[in-house]
Each structure stands twice: as C-alpha cells, then as structure tokens.
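# step 3/5: fold
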Amino acid sequence: MGTLKDQKITLNDGTETTMGQWADKLLLVVNVASQCGLTPQYEGLQRLYEKYQDRGLVVLGVPCNQFKGQEPGTDAQVCAFVQDNYGVSFPLLAKTEVNGENAHPLYRELKSATGGAEIQWNFEKFLLKIDGNTIERFAPQVEPESEETVRAIEANLPL
C-alpha cells in the first residue's frame, strides 16, 4: 500500500485532493450511510474524532449507497444530515462505491491489505496509516468506541 498517499479522492464539497494530506495521521476510514440501523454510530465516530484529533486521529467518512440504497441523498444532503443530526465535523468524501467493478481504488487497496473480502455493510471500519500500514479492519457491528477499537487507536496514535 505504499501508493496510498497518492490515491486521489474527492471530498464531500467537491474538492479534489489525495490521501497524502493525512500522511502523518492515523486514519479511521468508515463507509457510512444516513438511513441504516447503524447510522447512530456517527455519534461514536464524532466522539472519537473530538477525543483524539489533537493526537493525530482523523475519522474519514465515506458515504456509500451500495447497501440497500441507504445513502440516497446528494453529497450536500449527506453533509447537512450528519452535521444537523450528529454534529459531525470530521471530513467526508463524496459518495463512493466500495465494492464491485466501480469500487474506488482506495477501497480496493484497503480490502487487498486485509485479505481481499468485500465490504459487508455500512460502517465497516479500517484503521490505517498512510505510510502503508493497515492496522485493523473492524466489522460494521463493532461500535466506534468499543474496547477493541479504542485500544487499537490508542496503540497507534502518532502524537
């Protein structure tokens, strides 16, 4: 995954950048959806971000509509929903496919680095460093503030 930092991404507001903007950070990359039973996980993701952002954690939300159409809105609607309902201040990407032939290259790399399995559902989480280390992959049902997630984050914070 040495090329992860060069991976092109589009933020929710249409800004194009690369994953390299977080080269010195620990990332928790999560495919998210607004109309899912797991949507309340946004609360835990936001709390993690607030607690650890000063120590180098970035939560990166990746809206995806591939699981029963549970993210049907536009990028602007997704952003407004998560800000209004969950106070989300961490970065969001533009809506992205995570599985199949149109899966974003970022997700192809993340899946490859963790055994190749497809994304199971909304709110699957990857903890990684841009330098090429994918540290952990967490199933959708694993809460953001679970003991195993927090332990992995604290063990790998850059600051």
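# step 4/5: annotate
The chain has four helices and six strands.
# step 5/5: archive (pending)
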